[in-house]
Amino acid sequence: MSAPTPLYLDHNATTPVDPRVVDRMLPYFTEVFGNPASVEHVHGNRAQAAVKRAREQVAQAIGARENEIVFTGSCTEANNLAILGAARANPDKRHIVTTAVEHPSVLEPFRQLEREGWDITVLGVDEQGTVAPADVAASLRADTLLVSVMGANNEVGTIQPIEEIGDICARAGVLFHSDLAQLLSCRKVDVATANIHLASISGHKLYGPKGVGALYVRSRSPRAKVAPILFGGGQEKGLRPATVNVPLVVGLGEALLLATRQCAADSARLAAMSGAFRDHIAAHLEGVSFNGHPTERLPGNSSISIAGVEPLALMHKLNPFASFSASSACSTEKVETSPVLLAMFGDSARARQAFRVSPGRFTDKVALMDFAQQLVAEAAQLRQFAG
């Protein structure tokens, strides 16, 4: 008899594919399998029609136009294309701005551009993980090309003031890029009203498939000019030269459609569950700190530091019961303090002791509260042994 499957509480790392998304994708693996670039025959035309519908769904979900959506193989690829592509398409402006709490797929392209001669500014955040719009405004120069600030942080859940930052960038004539990977499953974003010029999207963070993403590239004035970073065929306007993965883009489109329809209800439910979870822990353990902004946060994210409790030891104890995370899933296997927590708290015990619990759309509240009781018991025992 196999052991029971642990409760999955790591939705900020990846989400299960919604069964409705799977149903929508399945015919495009076996029945409608044509290459969407082969428009001279029926099979290709059917595949192309599916890609067109998916592009429309993605565009509608974020207030964009169909011609502004470029499909990619991941949000990481979309971030690289946005940042490297914008810089190389506008070589006369040599200054770019980001924050210390961005995903590595934003920070690493910035570091690459620094090696290529661009000046980079990395803004700090406060102890809630928020970047101040005033700091963004103060960082801008006459030669600033791009500001990149994520919509919401994957580790501590803080939602950034992207509308205010977008307005600052628009007034200054600076491109604004936002990694929206974590935000779109719980909040609607209109890229036009938020003055976002480039936006990256992930399939597997919003109950869609892995291996697919999208980049919004503004075509309206002020237009975002982006140069390709991959070379080959002319697919996706030459910005992503590869055969479009029809089943996956169909899944991305459907996942965004569902998110648009139910993000408000999903968010209310998750916020209530996560609030009850945190309240239980705070009521039964001393020395508990909750990381990230108290209200402007992802509804399903709980970043927690417990004084005297090492998170990897806690995870080891609780692995049979639940899957959760001590750091970002995109980090290396080397154990080191998260740069996000370091930016918020410095090299402190609170930073080192942080872990993340993130329920999702299909998490049962009773199961989550049962896990809260197990977590309290194991944390208390670990603290006793440590003392």
TrEMBL record:
<keyword id="KW-0408">Iron</keyword>
<dbReference type="InterPro" id="IPR015424">
    <property type="entry name" value="PyrdxlP-dep_Trfase"/>
</dbReference>
<protein>
    <recommendedName>
        <fullName>Cysteine desulfurase</fullName>
        <ecNumber>2.8.1.7</ecNumber>
    </recommendedName>
</protein>
<keyword id="KW-0663">Pyridoxal phosphate</keyword>
<dbReference type="InterPro" id="IPR020578">
    <property type="entry name" value="Aminotrans_V_PyrdxlP_BS"/>
</dbReference>
<dbReference type="GO" id="GO:0031071">
    <property type="term" value="F:cysteine desulfurase activity"/>
</dbReference>
<dbReference type="InterPro" id="IPR000192">
    <property type="entry name" value="Aminotrans_V_dom"/>
</dbReference>
<keyword id="KW-0808">Transferase</keyword>
<dbReference type="GO" id="GO:0051536">
    <property type="term" value="F:iron-sulfur cluster binding"/>
</dbReference>
<dbReference type="GO" id="GO:0046872">
    <property type="term" value="F:metal ion binding"/>
</dbReference>
<dbReference type="InterPro" id="IPR015421">
    <property type="entry name" value="PyrdxlP-dep_Trfase_major"/>
</dbReference>
<comment type="function">
    <text>Catalyzes the removal of elemental sulfur atoms from cysteine to produce alanine. Seems to participate in the biosynthesis of the nitrogenase metalloclusters by providing the inorganic sulfur required for the Fe-S core formation.</text>
</comment>
<keyword id="KW-0479">Metal-binding</keyword>
<keyword id="KW-0535">Nitrogen fixation</keyword>
<dbReference type="Pfam" id="PF00266">
    <property type="entry name" value="Aminotran_5"/>
</dbReference>
<comment type="similarity">
    <text>Belongs to the class-V pyridoxal-phosphate-dependent aminotransferase family. NifS/IscS subfamily.</text>
</comment>
<dbReference type="InterPro" id="IPR016454">
    <property type="entry name" value="Cysteine_dSase"/>
</dbReference>
<keyword id="KW-0411">Iron-sulfur</keyword>
<dbReference type="InterPro" id="IPR015422">
    <property type="entry name" value="PyrdxlP-dep_Trfase_small"/>
</dbReference>
<feature type="domain" description="Aminotransferase class V">
    <location>
        <begin position="8"/>
        <end position="319"/>
    </location>
</feature>
